[in-house]
Amino acid sequence: MFKQTIKRDSMNNPIKEIAPLGFPWQTSDPFLFCVHHEDFYPAGNEQMGPKASLAGRNLGNDFTIKEGFRMYHGQTVPGFPAHPHRGFETVTIAKTGLVDHSDSLGAAGRFGNGDVQWMTAGKGVQHSEMFPLLNQESNNPFELFQIWLNLPSYKKMANPHFAMLWHEDIPVYQHTDAQNLQTKVDVIAGKIGDTQAPAPAPDSWAADPTNELAIWTIKMDANAQWQLPLASTGINRRLYFYKGNQLKVAGENVPPYHSAQVQADAEVLIENGDQESFLLLLQGKPIDEPVVQHGPFVMNTAHEIQSAMRMFQATQFGGWPWPAHDHVHPREKGRFARFADGSVVEKG
Fold first, then answer.
1. Which residues form a coiled coil (predicted)?
2. Annotated binding-site positions for Fe cation
3. Nearest CA-CA partner of 148 in 316, 298, 337, 300
4. Domain 171-289: which topology?
């Protein structure tokens, strides 16, 4: 398997680049960041952490897979205790396992097993994302994508907001090829033909359909073929081949755990190999503005970053109303969302 980035110079080649997936994954404007977490957690203990020794781990900064899992910044429960964001959005796709959300606005939720949380940080919010291990008798497998989507300058100070896209409400596009083989696409943002995603957060770049923003997770049968629908000239489009053994994109071999940046307005046929494959597609019109990032703050100028840091030091973006920075909800709680206005959705 080659490890270097391969760029294509021909204007007639629908593939612009093939690149290995690192940590984080390479993204294109309007996206800022993408990570794929897959962990094979053991049975949970009474605190909803791993029922296993944590000796030898760099707790608080544990990003190395050991015995099949990572604790990330968690010291008891794996995950990401309270931390701030400003100037962009997070889209969290919880494919397997559960995420406990709490934030500085008093909003909270538990979601997973196909649910998606879409959070606009806007002018500033703190939140925690913990991964409670509810099953005490057997393993707790976990898989999650987190995607950072930029906000344009005129939206960077929007009011914080979070929305839940429950898996029951995320439409699935299905394509059957000439060999009767299936490609299934969870349409989290954007649309494919008449299959339209749920509405995104209201201040999102995705809220304007002319930006042609798309977030799709794709599952292909062994040997299935699917032609990507066309988008407009100038739209950035990148495919991430994160599980499988063989894939051809526009006639070129794309090795496992690589991405392919492709022309959105060109005909691109995806031909799967002899095993089931899984892909992520990120697409959108570029915002095409300066990006200045300092950790969890993404603005347009260094002055704005300094202002964000001063504001967080002064206000903590509303403080932290929860009893712990790694707050988790009661074990018996089902999937739910409690929003900042006090409204509650219970999914069980």
1. none
2. 83, 85, 127, 129
3. 298
4. Jelly Rolls (2.60.120)
